[in-house]
Specification:
This protein has two domains: 217 residues, NAD(P)-binding Rossmann-like Domain (Rossmann fold, 3-Layer(aba) Sandwich); 124 residues, UDP-galactose 4-epimerase, domain 1. 42% of the residues lie in helices and 16% in strands. It contains 13 helices and twelve strands. Helix 2 crosses helix 4 and helix 9 crosses helix 11.
Length: 363
């Protein structure tokens, strides 16, 4: 397989690139704009592999996308390039609309023209996979689960931009016959995760003895998926998924945010004890605007149709994640010191004063 991956220097994208090149032996063109969250070190393990190519380009650049597809001649496009942090979307939504909506449209059009010019056999096997999020569905009541038929109800600029891009992909399938697939995943975690996100942020703050601010009462529920399990699922969808379908991917691990924070503290206390409990660092702060209360995915469709199962439980996955961060300070320390130190994001102007003394990001 020859696959063009957009956003392949990001967290999930780099895990996918490593998997496709190292584990599957596929030829990969990694297309990435190299924003603040991109990290070339995340693909160092395959950077010199003969099956790997890199192109620095923006998915909003129509000429660059057309040229990349024409030269590389992929059998599939796996679209992961996106602005993805909810807190950043609250105060800087324009970048999310541009990359997630306009960028997806631009890539769809470039792909449509490329696909239309392929011969019969190549055209028949071509796939366009759009990787999205469970946040497009909004919030859940206790005991409910997101399924592929759940109505969209986005609540943040980020989730609204991803919902928009999902609808564009579906429209290009219905209108033009482009062989598309959509996946909506739950919260990912694992190695190489940029430290603005919940788990690496809590882990590194706890490691440094800093406060661990938790939004509201900490009872918001998120479903957790180990990143290596996710990329195996994405690969299966490209290989075996039914064209035009959506597949929800979740780890069957819904947990309250406070329980996640406590688990990280406990694992870190075991692996690198300080003589006390890092749970004492937990501090509750004002909730963020539009914070959805509960997410949980029912992954029955992908499990039944494609035979995928999450290999990691949250317990095994978080232990592996904490151990990786302890062993790989070379990767995260430059980010922590020079790109993002842990300051709170997503505050409205009216909230800046009341949260300023804490000066740490929350969950």
């Amino acid at each position: 397989m020859r696959v063009a991956v957009t956003g392949g220097l990001g967290f999930i994208g780099s895990a996918l690139v490593r998997h496709l090149v190292r584990d599957r032996g596929w030829h990969v063109l990694n297309i990435d704009k190299m924003t603040y969250a991109a990290n070339p070190h995340s693909v160092a393990a395959v950077a010199n592999h003969p099956n790997y190519q890199f192109m620095r380009a923006d998915v909003c650049d129509a000429q660059a996308m057309s040229s990349a597809l024409s030269k590389f001649q992929p059998d599939a496009v796996m679209h992961l390039a996106a602005e993805s942090h909810v807190d950043r979307s609250i105060t800087a939504s324009a970048a999310f609309i541009k990359t997630n909506v306009v960028g997806t449209y631009t890539l769809l059009e470039a792909t449509r023209h490329y696909w239309s010019a392929l011969n019969g056999e190549a055209q028949a096997r071509f796939r366009f996979l759009h990787v999205s999020t469970d946040e497009v569905y909004g919030t859940l009541s206790e005991g409910d689960f997101f399924v592929e038929e759940t109505a969209y109800d986005p609540r943040s600029p980020y989730s609204a931009s991803k919902a928009s891009s999902d609808h564009l992909v579906s429209a290009w399938y219905e209108t033009y016959g482009l062989p598309t697939l959509i996946t909506n995943c739950s919260n990912n975690y694992g190695p190489y995760h940029f430290p603005e996100k919940l788990i690496p942020l809590v882990l590194l703050n706890a490691l440094e003895g800093k406060p661990l601010p938790v939004y509201g009462d900490g009872r918001q529920v998120r479903d957790w998926l180990y990143v290596d399990d996710h990329v195996r699922a994405l690969t299966l969808v490209v290989e075996k998924g039914r064209v035009g379908e959506t597949y929800n991917i979740g780890g069957r691990a819904p947990m309250e945010n406070i329980a996640v924070v406590e688990e990280i503290c406990d694992v870190l206390d075991t692996l690198r004890p300080t003589g006390g409990s890092r749970r004492d660092l937990i501090t509750y702060v004002t909730d963020r605007p539009g914070h959805d209360r509960r997410y949980a995915i029912d992954p029955s469709k992908i499990e039944t149709e494609l035979g995928w199962r999450a290999a990691q439980t949250f317990g095994t996955g978080i232990a592996a994640t904490v151990a990786w961060y302890l062993d790989n300070e070379w990767w995260w320390r430059p980010l922590r010191d020079g790109v993002y130190s842990g300051s709170r994001l997503g505050l409205l102007q009216s909230e800046l004063g009341e949260e300023k003394p804490l000066a740490e990001s929350a969950i």
